[in-house]
């Protein structure tokens, strides 16, 4: 009885001590519950022949026919290739850009100059993808685009970015890096701020150059953060950034061989065909694969170094 009383006393003490922090997390917990857990009932649509009149629970079951319909379609290979390939390219590009700019910011001695650079780099992160898409149209438009006009005047050749899909293998990663590097570099920069300055002083006394100090001190400190963010990104490798792949290429069918991914395909299936069941099946597929990708990547990271694992 005394042991139970002590446990209750510890719980009450913990609640009193952390009550404000717990109260601050309640809105986030409520949001996750409403928008992430309650909609999970819709998973059953992936295994039903959905009839709107009968509703989600009254529609007949059809097993895995919705999954088979997607994977047997002519677009399945192209969409999966684009989703995995472009997401892998974006993960690598954003990782390298974030680390590089964080290291460059860390080398800036002037605080005023540092704040100016951070503000300039972070500003695009607040742009909506709709606005970014309009900016890209102004830049790459076929007739009045600033870049296409410049290329035409310099070379005499007309370049049509919105009819040649392979240009977007370069354009999409560049746009993603431009928009997201400010945020990712801030995360890595905060990790660099925790490094003891005496390590750099000792390295300088030993004759190490600045590049050697970055290689042997700064980068090893960043590796755990790099691995953690990469594991989370790989878990979402089948979930493309809808805004990037829909608004930036403007949903132009000529670009689908490169820009069409699972999320845009599902969006069109919902808005054009009203195929809720197949869309739910694709969502379940994304979630299951993402779950196992996180487990596998985390296991691999822990095999390399036990401290690199996310859990």
TrEMBL record:
Gene3D superfamilies: MetI-like. Coiled coil: none annotated. GO terms for cellular component: plasma membrane. The keyword Transit peptide does not apply. Keywords: Cell membrane, Membrane, Transmembrane, Transmembrane helix, Transport. It comes from the Bacteria. It holds the Pfam family BPD_transp_1. PANTHER family: BLL4140 PROTEIN. This is Sugar ABC transporter permease.
């Amino acid at each position: 009885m005394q042991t139970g009383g002590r446990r209750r006393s510890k719980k009450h003490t913990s609640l009193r001590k952390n009550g404000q922090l717990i109260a601050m997390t309640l809105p986030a917990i409520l949001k996750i519950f409403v928008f992430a857990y309650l909609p999970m009932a819709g998973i059953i649509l992936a295994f039903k022949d959905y009839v709107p009149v009968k509703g989600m629970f009254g529609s007949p079951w059809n097993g895995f026919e919705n999954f088979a319909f997607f994977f047997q379609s002519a677009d399945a290979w192209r969409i999966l290739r684009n989703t995995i390939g472009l997401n892998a390219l974006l993960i690598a590009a954003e990782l390298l850009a974030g680390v590089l700019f964080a290291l460059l910011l860390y080398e800036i001695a002037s605080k005023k100059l540092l704040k100016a650079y951070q503000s300039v780099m972070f500003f695009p992160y607040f742009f909506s993808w709709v606005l970014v898409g309009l900016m890209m149209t102004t830049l790459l438009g076929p007739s009045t685009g600033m870049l296409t006009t410049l290329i035409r005047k310099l070379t005499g050749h007309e370049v049509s970015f919105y009819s040649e899909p392979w240009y977007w293998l370069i354009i999409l990663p560049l746009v993603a890096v431009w928009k997201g590097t400010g945020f990712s570099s801030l995360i890595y920069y905060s990790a660099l701020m925790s490094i003891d300055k005496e390590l750099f002083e000792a390295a300088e006394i030993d004759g190490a150059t600045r590049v050697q100090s970055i290689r042997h001190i700064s980068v090893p400190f960043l590796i755990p953060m790099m691995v953690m963010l990469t594991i989370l990104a790989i878990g979402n490798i089948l979930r493309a950034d809808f805004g990037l792949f829909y608004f930036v290429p403007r949903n132009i069918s000529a670009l689908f061989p490169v820009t069409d991914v699972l999320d845009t395909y599902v969006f069109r299936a919902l808005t054009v065909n009203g195929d809720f069941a197949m869309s739910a099946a694709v969502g379940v597929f994304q979630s299951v694969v993402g779950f196992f990708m996180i487990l596998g990547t985390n296991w691999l990271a822990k095999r390399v170094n036990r401290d690199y694992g996310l859990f």
